[in-house]
Amino acid sequence: MAEVSFYILPSASLQERDLFACKLIEKAYRSGNFCYVLTDHAEQSRHLDDLLWTFRAGSFIPHQLYTGELPDIDNVILIGSVPAPENRQKTVFNLSSHYPDTSPQTERILEILDNSETAKTAGRDRYRRYQQSGMTVTAHKIGSA
User: What is the pTM of this model?
Assistant: First the structure.
């Protein structure tokens, strides 16, 4: 059963949420975890793809957009708005506004919420669904509100 971690940011800024996501993705990559980043749509995926190249000087995180076709190499972070491919379901960063498709392979789901009412309301709904599914859910408030 997957473990779910919610990271609740003090700001309502989507840019700050995306930068925080990049930092967590980098941490996962440096730990040897080649995860999947789920977004709501292709535009959000492209934005995150661009941001991963520029969010921090000196950072290098191999990544690519995923639209249903697997990459030629395995050691990359995939970003997409379609369900994660079978071999990338171990760790899912859910940056979308919906409950992600999971499988028995899913060990960890990371949710990053900005402090907007829309994000918090959708996050609360997903939190309840994760709990109802029997997943262990933890919440981490980042900084101060």
Answer: 0.93
